[in-house]
């Protein structure tokens, strides 16, 4: 960010002949320099006080980066991280300059309603995923008279941010949080929650709403039947995650029927390939599975690139964990690894920051710093 620096010149730095022969002019220059320094300092102090940042520190406010923008040039991925700005920073906007902000972009912080930072950080990341934001805003434009759902509340929140006259500021997601607490009992409190669990719930729930409204538009019964939520309204029964990932629903005869993918699948769904090589007959078997996010372990002094490399490390299956080889018709030692077969448009990474420690008999938080580049090259793809 823009940082103002000033230098004060004293008369002791001037040659003696100038110090005594041009007293009036030197005094005038010093007066103007100090006055200029005072004005710049007051502007900077006003801007930083509004956002509670010390004068001697640059403005660096970051949120957990969960979502990565992936280019259609595999195996490269584009990383985006966005910060959350404070409430009263119109002065800061003027000090930085309007030309420093991208056109048609807004940077608004979300008000915390008692430990709702888990949802605010995810919503910030989702808002700056343009394909997702465009689909949500498109949904609002097409469904102006729809009943209140979590998706409609999210669309209203995104629309409120996108139509703000100011470039920066803050907004209260009160309506969205209220609806979230009605939809999910685990979130109906003021306790800290897991951001990854919230992201999974939100993505799955949005997909269910889209499928239910699509079936209603076709005149058919809602997929999965209907249930009554705790607020008394009829809603769609929550299908399992496997059904969502595989894009399958239940037909009239109880068989699995393939469903047309939604824009949630188009944005977030990728394909993993699990490769297993029998160490006895050298036969390699592979199995594909869909995913919405990748969960990677976090080590000390690591980076996103290293985490993804470790995700695809070869694992040896032995002892009680042997692999049943169809070619050998028996359990054999084998080597297994996971690789990315198809990258999603938006790659969501879950950094596993909780690890079970036997000496403490509990889970502890792993607070190691994880470095990530602006452009991420993936080496664990099938084509690598």
- What would CATH call the architecture of the largest domain? Alpha-Beta Complex
Distance between the termini: 38 Å
Count of separate structural domains: 3
Assigned CATH superfamily of the largest domain: Cysteine proteinases
The CATH C-level name of the largest domain is: Alpha Beta
Spatial extent as radius of gyration: 28 Å
Tell me about this structure.
- 35% of the residues lie in helices and 23% in strands.
- The protein has 384 residues and is of the alpha+beta class.
- The protein folds into 3 domains: 11-51; 83-263, Alpha-Beta Complex (Cathepsin B, Chain A); 269-384, Alpha-Beta Complex (Cathepsin B, Chain A), CATH 3.90.70.10.
- The strands form 8 sheets. It has a 5-stranded mixed beta sheet with strand order 11-17-1-2-21, with helices on one face.
- A hairpin with a 5-residue loop joins β7 and β8.
- The chain is globular and about 65 Å long.
Summarize the structure.
By secondary structure, the protein is an alpha+beta fold. The protein has 11 helices and 21 strands. Residues 1-38, 43-66, 69-88, 221-243 and 248-255 have low confidence and may be disordered.
């Amino acid at each position: 960010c823009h940082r103002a620096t000033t230098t004060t010149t004293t008369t002791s730095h001037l040659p003696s002949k100038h110090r005594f022969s041009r007293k009036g002019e030197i005094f005038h220059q010093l007066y103007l320099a100090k006055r200029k320094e005072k004005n710049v300092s007051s502007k900077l102090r006003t801007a930083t006080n509004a956002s509670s940042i010390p004068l001697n520190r640059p403005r660096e406010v970051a949120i957990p980066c969960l979502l990565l923008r992936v280019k259609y040039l595999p195996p490269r991925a584009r990383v985006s991280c966005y910060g959350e700005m404070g409430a009263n920073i119109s002065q800061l906007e003027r000090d930085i300059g309007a030309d420093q902000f991208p056109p048609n972009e807004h940077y608004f912080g979300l008000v915390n309603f008692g430990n709702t930072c888990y949802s605010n950080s995810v919503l910030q990341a989702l808002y700056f995923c343009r394909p997702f934001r465009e689909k949500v805003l498109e949904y609002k434009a097409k469904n102006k008279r729809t009943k209140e759902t979590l998706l409609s509340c999210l669309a209203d929140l995104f629309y409120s941010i996108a139509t703000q006259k100011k470039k920066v500021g803050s907004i209260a997601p009160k309506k969205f949080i209220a609806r979230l607490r009605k939809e999910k009992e685990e979130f109906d409190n003021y306790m800290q929650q897991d951001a990854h669990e919230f992201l999974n719930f939100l993505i799955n729930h949005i997909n269910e709403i889209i499928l239910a409204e699509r079936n209603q538009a076709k005149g058919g019964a809602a997929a999965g039947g209907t249930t009554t939520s705790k607020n008394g309204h009829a809603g769609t029964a929550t299908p399992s995650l496997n059904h969502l990932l595989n894009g399958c629903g239940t037909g009239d005869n109880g068989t699995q029927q393939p469903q047309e993918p939604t824009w949630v699948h188009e944005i977030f769904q990728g394909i993993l390939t699990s490769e297993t090589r029998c160490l006895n007959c050298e036969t390699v078997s592979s199995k594909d599975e869909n995913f919405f996010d990748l969960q990677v372990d976090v080590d000390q002094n690591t980076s996103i690139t290293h985490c993804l490399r470790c995700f695809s490390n070869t694992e040896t299956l032995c002892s009680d964990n042997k692999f049943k080889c169809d070619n050998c018709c028996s359990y054999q030692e084998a080597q297994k690894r996971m690789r990315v077969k198809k990258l999603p448009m938006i790659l969501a990474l879950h950094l596993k920051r909780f690890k079970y420690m036997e000496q403490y008999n509990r889970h502890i938080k792993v607070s190691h710093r994880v470095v990530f580049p602006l452009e991420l090259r993936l080496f664990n793809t099938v084509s690598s």
